[in-house]
Specification:
Protein name: Aspartyl/glutamyl-tRNA(Asn/Gln) amidotransferase subunit B
Pfam families: GatB_N (PF02934), GatB_Yqey (PF02637)
Number of domains: 3
Number of helices: 17
Strand content: 15-25%
Shape: elongated
Largest sheet: 10 strands, mixed
GO molecular function, one term: glutaminyl-tRNA synthase (glutamine-hydrolyzing) activity
Distance between the termini: 74 Å
Enzyme class: ligase
Low-confidence stretches: none
Number of strands: 17
Oligomer: single chain
Catalytic activity: L-aspartyl-tRNA(Asn) + L-glutamine + ATP + H2O = L-asparaginyl-tRNA(Asn) + L-glutamate + ADP + phosphate + 2 H(+); L-glutamyl-tRNA(Gln) + L-glutamine + ATP + H2O = L-glutaminyl-tRNA(Gln) + L-glutamate + ADP + phosphate + H(+)
Mean pLDDT: 92
Structural class: alpha+beta
């Protein structure tokens, strides 16, 4: 298990962590990577299987072309070099959730090589923000294993092979990450990218995005790499960061006490924050890789690569620049709106029929986002259509309804999906009142009710104007034109 943080900050400051991440992304193909079985989460155990998935004698795999497309998409997004001649190998190991006794993967020739992802992180000591590029060593294609279930039966391990053969890309970074925050920010960016590319849903709770962490330590200033330890069973970005910090502490304390760090695989218990040794880490020779004799090499032609490039969507960094330059949004707004592809698309759809781009941002970051959860966002189930929200914003800009009344109209629009905002405003008496005579009567009533405040205002307490405006708005039930109310108040006072 991990050690408690008993070391002084002075001792800890003498060491640095060296971290590498292995991120597995399940690809959103309709079928598996080497078989026609359905690739879907949540089915009854052992229903999305076939003789190919189960490795029956005499069966032959066939590569899913869409899985190759998706892997190349990720490589292009990361600035990787695309390998044109691809060979699959057998990675041999024996475990109950691997029905064939080997995993089809890529060994010496991964489909994407190099590249990197820019992240924003914070220095753990100073708290200062900085940018750094996390270098990617490679991205390779492989098939997933099945799932072992240890708590379904008191006496036996249960096996569900639905996941076996699901297409994966594994993204392996260089050992260039130094802090838990860098690791967390990198994983956040990976999840955002795969969602923008529509190649993976990024749901860590369902296991479609999984992360293993390799951690070693060394004295600050040293250039050699220490003995690395792999930590598995990390099902959230927060737990990845917790595992990095706890493993760093464990290794420093072990080193300081004269112990020896063993190259091993450990599992992380999120409930306790402790890690436990599972087994000594395998080496490449343990897997006895050799080229799979049943799969022919895959050659990505110029035409195939050009077709994938032509279908690449606009990526978050490019959208961020567009939102700040074309739409003139502040950096904060642009960062929030481009955090999810669905939000960015919704924002642009609203802007297609209104020119008040900042108002659109305010509405989405406020009332709209308040109505969304992860599921409704992923399924693009926005509470109000882009066209209706744009119409409401145009009504505010045109003085038809006040900003306060617009909030009420928006709430009613959620429950009345077929009604226009104009119809809702009229039906509920929320159309802005610009009748000067009627509003002057309300103003005079308010001032008559607050004679002491009027006297204070006339003696120089000008901030009381807000009180009078608020009272007039209450009396009009939000329908008064605030600008006209201010003018009438100023004139009478």
């Amino acid at each position: 298990m991990i050690a408690e943080a008993t070391l002084s900050p002075e001792v800890l400051s003498q060491y640095e962590a060296v971290i590498g991440l292995e991120v597995h992304c399940q690809l959103l193909t309709q079928s598996k990577i080497f078989a026609s079985d359905t690739n879907a989460f949540g089915a009854e155990p052992n229903t999305n299987i076939s003789v190919i998935t189960l490795g029956h004698p005499g069966t032959l795999p066939k590569l899913n072309r869409k899985a190759v497309d998706y892997a190349v998409r990720m490589g292009l997004a990361c600035g990787s070099t695309i390998t044109r001649h691809n060979v699959f190998a057998r990675k041999n190991y024996f475990y109950p959730d691997l029905p064939k006794g080997y995993q089809l993967s890529q060994d010496k020739g991964p489909i994407c090589v190099g590249g990197g992802i820019l992240v924003k992180a914070k220095d753990p000591v100073t708290g200062q923000s900085y940018q750094t590029t996390i270098q990617i060593h490679h991205i390779h294609l492989e098939e997933d294993a099945g799932k072992s279930i240890h708590d379904g039966d008191q006496w036996a391990t249960q096996l569900d092979y639905n996941r076996a053969g699901t297409p994966l890309i594994e993204m392996v970074t260089d050992p260039c990450i130094r802090t838990a925050d860098e690791a967390g920010q990198y994983l956040t960016e990976v999840r955002r990218l795969v969602r923008y590319l529509d190649i993976c849903d990024g749901n860590m709770e369902e296991g479609s995005l999984r992360c293993d962490v390799n951690v070693s330590i060394r004295p600050k200033g040293a250039t050699h790499l220490g003995t690395k330890v792999e930590v598995k069973n990390l099902n959230s970005i927060r737990n990845v960061m917790r595992a990095v910090d706890s493993e760093f502490l464990r290794q420093v304390e072990l080193t300081e006490s004269g112990g020896r760090i063993t190259q091993e695989t450990r599992t992380f218990d999120a409930a306790t924050g402790l890690s436990y040794a599972m087994r000594e880490k395998e080496t490449m020779n343990d897997y006895r890789y050799f080229p799979d004799p049943d799969l022919t090499p895959v050659v990505i032609s110029d035409a195939w690569l050009a077709d994938i490039q032509a279908q690449m969507p606009i990526l978050p960094a490019e959208l961020y620049l567009k939102f700040t330059s074309v739409y003139g949004l502040p950096e904060y707004d642009a960062a929030l709106l481009t955090d999810a592809k669905e939000l960015a698309e919704y924002y642009e759809a609203v802007c297609a029929t209104t020119s008040n781009y900042k108002a659109v941002s305010n509405w989405i970051m406020g009332p709209v986002k308040g109505q969304l959860n992860e599921k409704t966002l992923r399924e693009r189930q926005f509470p109000v259509s882009a066209e209706r929200l744009a119409a409401l914003i145009n009504m505010v800009d045109g003085g038809v309804v006040s900003q306060t009344a617009a909030q009420q109209v928006f709430a009613l629009m959620i429950d009345q999906p077929d009604a226009t905002p104009e119809a809702i405003a009229k039906a509920n008496g929320l159309v802005q009142n610009r009748n000067t005579d009627a509003l002057q009567t309300l103003v005079e009533e308010v001032l008559a009710a607050w004679p002491d405040k009027v006297e204070q205002y006339r003696k120089g307490k000008k901030n009381l104007l807000g009180l009078f405006v608020g009272e007039v708005m209450k009396k009009s039930k939000g329908s008064a034109d605030p600008k006209l109310v201010n003018e009438l108040l100023a004139k009478i006072l």
